Amino acid sequence: MEIVGFSVCHQLDSRSLIFGETVSPICSRCAGIYMGFIIAALILFIMFRKKQCELPPLYIMIILGVFFISTIIDGLASYLGIYETNNTVRFSRGTLCGAAIITVLYPVFNFQYYRKPVKERIFIRPVTFIIFCLILAVFIVFSLLRPPWLGSFYYYFSGVSVILTFFFVSLTMIFLIPGFSQKAGRLFT
User: Fold this and answer.
1) How far is residue 93's CA from residue 68's CA, in Å, rounded to a whole number?
2) Which residues have CB under 8 Å from 153's CB, separation 6+?
3) pLDDT value of position 7
4) Residue 182: helix, strand or coil by DSSP?
5) d(CA 17, CA 164)
6) Distance between CA 32 and CA 89 in Å, rounded?
7) Spatial separation of the C-alpha atoms in residues 171 and 47, rounded to whole Å
8) Crossing angle (nearest 10°) for helices 126-145 and 28-47
9) Which of 15, 119, 158, 168 is most buried, taking the most CB atoms under 10 A from its CB?
10) What is the pLDDT of residue 49?
């Protein structure tokens, strides 16, 4: 996991989440991005089983843009020394950024993966987006409580999240090639 973490992150202990004596193999912001991506992907695959392939409504895209841009601004401002953030802010914004990325990528994946994707928007009803955000908030709060007994789980989950995120993004890019796209009838086929 240390090697996986080193491939994408500076791995400063002072900027990493610590669970008891276990230090995450990636910093708080990176852990948030990658774990947020995977948690949000699981939520999306559970919430939208009909193979929806249309992007969310514009107002949700704007909210997702704010999630993404706030992480970039936080990282740049911290790097340039404009202000110093803490691990709570880094992890929270990173999680929202990862969730925003997969929320835009998910309909693209569905369109490219399935033989007959459903021409329907995800989050067409605002209540589904609110539920999605509440689940993410629960994940963020629980993670930031840093129960020591979850140290090993978070250590491996953060590393595996990096691998799964790159796998999912690469898979989606492969499906953009016409010979590989729109072949599946259902997930895992």
Assistant:
1) 8
2) none
3) 86
4) coil
5) 20
6) 10
7) 21
8) 140
9) 158
10) 83
Q: Is residue 186 very low, low, confident or very high in pLDDT (cuts 50, 70, 90)? A: confident
CA distances, 89 to each of 30, 77, 107 (Å): 12, 13, 28
**At 165, which helix (H) or strand (E)?**
helix 151-174
Across all residues in the chain, what is the average pLDDT? 91
Name the packing angle between helices 126-145 and 87-113 (round to 10°): 140
The DSSP H or E segment spanning 121 is strand 118-121
Confidence (pTM) = 0.91
pLDDT tens, position by position, 71-123: 999 989 988 989 888 989 999 999 999 999 999 999 999 999 999 999 999 99
CB-CB contact of 4 with 167 (8 Å):
no
Cα–Cα distance, 65 to 70 (Å, whole number): 8
Q: Could you please report the per-residue DSSP string of 17-83? A: -EETTEEPSS-HHHHHHHHHHHHHHHHHHHH--S-EEEPPPHHHHHHHHHHHHHHHHHHHHHHTTS-
Provide the residue count of the chain.
189
